[in-house]
Amino acid sequence: MMTVWIAILLIAIIAEISTTALVSIWFIFGAIAALIAYFLGFGIPVQIGVCAVFSLLSVVFLRPITKKYLSDNKTRTNADELIGASVVISERVDAIAGTGLVKVRDVEWRVRTEDGSTMEVGEQGVVKEIKGVTLVVEKKQ
């Protein structure tokens, strides 16, 4: 059974090296654990169970960590260039009334303030983030 675990280990390593996504690293951990179980003298059913459990545990506990550090799930758009841009309010910003507009590069955007405060027509702000189709601005100091 040792050759099976080594074969699984090598196939998983080769598959992991040949891809940019983490697709088989979980089976590497399972195969190593099963090899340890083999060398400790456990039977085939225990080795298979150890491989399955360690593979599953590595997916459950390591995937969220690796996903956090290795991927950027945010879809980039041209609108992202607006973050940090200065804007001039063209319609009074009022969170209660649900009003507020700015015009940026000939495009009108809904706007709201970061802290819920009001801004008057002509006041300047800085875009802090984009939430859907709304710019979140902060009063310019």
Topology as a string of helices (H) and strands (E): HHHEEEEE
The Cα radius of gyration reads 27 Å
Task: Give a quick account of the main beta sheet: strands, pairing sense, barrel closure.
Answer: 5 strands, mixed, barrel
Care to count the β-strands? 5
Secondary structure class reads alpha+beta
| Intertermini distance | 70 Å
In spatial order, strands of the major sheet run 1-2-3-5-4
Helix count, DSSP H or I runs of 4 or more residues: 3
Tell me the helix content.
40-55%
Mean pLDDT: 89
Shape estimate: rod-shaped
Contiguous low-pLDDT stretches (5 residues minimum) are none
Share in β-strands: 25-35%
What does this protein structure show overall?
The protein is of the alpha+beta class. It is about 40% helix and about 25% strand. It contains 3 helices and 5 strands. A 5-stranded mixed barrel has the order 1-2-3-5-4. Helix 1 packs antiparallel against helix 2 and helix 2 runs antiparallel to helix 3.
Give the key terms.
single chain; 3 helices; 141 residues; alpha+beta; 5 strands
Give a brief description.
This protein is of the alpha+beta class. It has three helices and five strands.
Describe how the helices and strands are arranged.
Elements: H1 2-17, H2 25-39, H3 44-70, E1 86-94, E2 99-104, E3 107-113, E4 124-131, E5 134-139
Parallel strand pairs: 3-5
Antiparallel strand pairs: 1-2, 1-4, 2-3, 4-5
Helix pairs in contact: 1-2, 2-3
